[in-house]
Design goal:
Helix content: 40-55%
Shape: globular
Number of strands: 15
Number of domains: 2
Distance between the termini: 64 Å
Number of helices: 22
Strand content: 5-15%
Length: 564
């Protein structure tokens, strides 16, 4: 009786979530019919001229994602107005899993394991995207148009016969299909491992089959149409990560994008997702830019605003606690003694291969660091768990506090954990630390700007900038830890250089698109009301930067220093 009631509750919850998604699509829907009608002559001329332009694929795929369809339809129109022949790729409900699916939508994951998204999410996805894009008159490709019966059979056969370990490492003609399938399944569960999930294997197989179908469909599309470039969101998971693999193998230049932290801003990267590209970005992109006191003041004012998130549409605290006495009482630390900070990131997020990582994963890094500090009673280790575990887009179902507790039931007396729900200000705590240890968080960019030394063990964007102590192996990491506490903060020259990079990161790599605005829900966005002519070249510096990058290969660097 109780099991039946729980099942009914889960089904009801899924229906409510589906209703909410559909309402959001209606509420925040881009109205291209109205926008085109503000100047139909301009649009007709642009479509005609674009027939001789560069061919660009906007591989949106998941058209029901209101954020993706909003930004990518905006790009499609802007690129057409600049003479490009734009095609759009959409999934029409044939993928057995995708990145629009997650365990919060399917609290009874057996339903997803058995049925996938066809009976619910797919019904809202393609029809919505088609209705949004139809007024533009652009070429729309469906996944199903590029798949044969043999393709479906191949995906089923391979997906059902390989072992889980074989799936994770599987490549299709050198395409890392298995890696993105695993990342997609981990994202579905919001976990860094599938081991504790009873339906982990069948759902991984769903993502693997979806990845295979994506690879086969995209490859056939690119063989038929000779696209110069492919632009699409995120660049990892399924299907986006697989599309990138296929495009790069076919010699099609890839552009990926993501929403940035600052309001109305986005990060664009060439070749691959920003998770990879920002780590390897050449320092020549920023270290020789003009620098003055006004830019420094602007940066420091923005970094201070991040303490409460007033200039961002991605933030994690409503009422942060800054009082050190109250903080010390809450977590039990003694700030009069040497402190080392450790900042986690969300365990499941962007689970890709990074060859520069010193440890196999973040959890191993955290545990090994705790074991190390157990032998360093002269230091206190303050572990700040990322608030995004509970306040991010997907609430983590593998809390790192619980993982630590299982591995180390009794913490050393000099190790303190600040859990994700705590309102303690990360900034206030880190300012009391001699050095910060990080794995993949972007906080390294901010901490070095405040003169705080940082040791990097993972894929943080601050790596390779000459500003941090970067460990390439476990041995090197602990050799760096042996030097703690460091004798002083970063020297003035290094701190200034760190601020130059931070300015570059927050103001030049985060490109403003004033056509976007915050939506009703936290950290969501939609398109504003505007006229077609507003998207013409010369009207928006941010849009020009993005379009020039896509069309000519220019770096996606917004000249913020010239637009202050």
């Amino acid at each position: 009786m109780i099991k039946k009631w729980l099942k009914q509750q889960k089904l009801f919850y899924s229906q409510v979530k589906l209703y909410q998604r559909r309402q959001r699509l209606k509420r925040d829907r881009p109205n291209w019919d109205r926008i085109v009608q503000t100047n139909p002559t301009l649009w007709a001329a642009a479509l005609e001229k674009a027939k001789n332009g560069s061919k660009i694929l906007i591989a949106t795929s998941i058209g029901g994602d209101i954020h993706s369809i909003s930004v990518e339809s905006l790009l499609a129109v802007a690129l057409t107005l600049r003479g490009a022949e734009v095609h759009i790729l959409l999934c029409d409900g044939i993928l057995p899993a995708c990145s629009w699916c997650d365990a919060t939508f399917y609290p009874d994951d057996r339903i997803f394991a058995n049925n996938g998204p066809k009976k619910d999410l797919c019904r809202s996805c393609f029809p919505f995207a088609q209705s949004v894009l139809q007024p533009l008159g652009l070429t729309i490709h469906r996944y199903s148009e590029w798949l044969t019966d043999n393709d479906y059979q191949q995906a089923e056969t391979i997906g059902n016969t390989l072992s889980v370990s074989e799936i994770e490492n599987y490549t299709l003609d050198s395409l890392a299909v298995g890696e993105h399938a695993l990342a997609g399944a981990l994202r579905f569960f919001a976990r860094a491992s599938l081991a504790a999930e009873p339906n982990g294997e069948p759902i991984l197989r769903r993502y693997f089959k979806a990845a295979l179908l994506t690879a086969l469909a995209t490859r056939r599309l690119l063989q038929t149409h000779k696209f110069d470039r492919a632009a699409f969101n995120h660049g990892i998971y399924v299907p986006q990560g697989v599309i990138g693999e296929v495009a790069r193998a076919a010699g099609v230049r890839v552009v990926n994008w993501n929403p940035a932290y600052r309001k109305q801003c986005f990060i664009f990267t060439h070749h691959d997702t920003y998770h990879h590209q920002l780590i390897s970005e050449p320092t020549s992109n920023w270290e020789n830019m003009p620098w003055n006191s006004e830019m420094e003041e602007e940066l420091m004012a923005y970094l201070k605003s991040r303490w409460q998130g007033t200039q961002d549409w991605i933030w994690f605290h409503e009422s942060p606690q800054f009082d050190l006495k109250a903080i010390a009482q809450e977590i039990g630390v003694d700030f009069t003694k040497p402190c080392i900070g450790l900042l986690t990131n969300v365990m499941w997020d962007a689970q890709l291969h990074y060859p520069a990582n010193a440890f196999p994963n973040m959890l191993e890094w955290v545990l090994q660091t705790i074991y190390y500090f157990e032998k360093r009673p002269d230091l206190q280790l303050l572990i700040r768990v990322h608030p995004a575990e509970i306040r991010g887009t997907l609430r983590s179902r593998q809390p790192i506090v619980e993982e630590i507790r299982q591995a180390i039931p009794k913490l050393p007396s000099n190790v303190f954990i600040i859990p994700p729900e705590s309102q303690v200000s990360t900034y206030a705590v880190m300012l009391q630390c001699n050095t910060a240890l990080i794995y993949g968080t972007k906080m390294g960019v901010e901490l070095t700007s405040m003169g705080i030394p940082v040791i990097v063990a993972g894929e943080a964007w601050i790596r390779n900038k000459g500003l941090t102590l970067d460990a390439k192996s476990v041995e090197e990491y602990f050799q760096l830890c042996d030097r703690l506490p460091l004798p002083h903060r970063l020297d003035p020259e290094t701190t200034q250089r760190a601020r130059q990079y931070a300015y570059h990161f927050f103001f030049r790599r985060m490109i403003p698109l004033e056509f976007t605005t915050a939506a009703k829900n936290l950290s969501e966005y939609k398109l504003k009301t505007f006229n077609l002519a507003d998207l013409m070249p010369g009207k928006s510096s941010g849009l020009d930067t993005i379009c020039n990058g896509i069309l000519t290969g220019d770096e996606f660097i917004y000249p913020a220093e010239l637009n202050r």
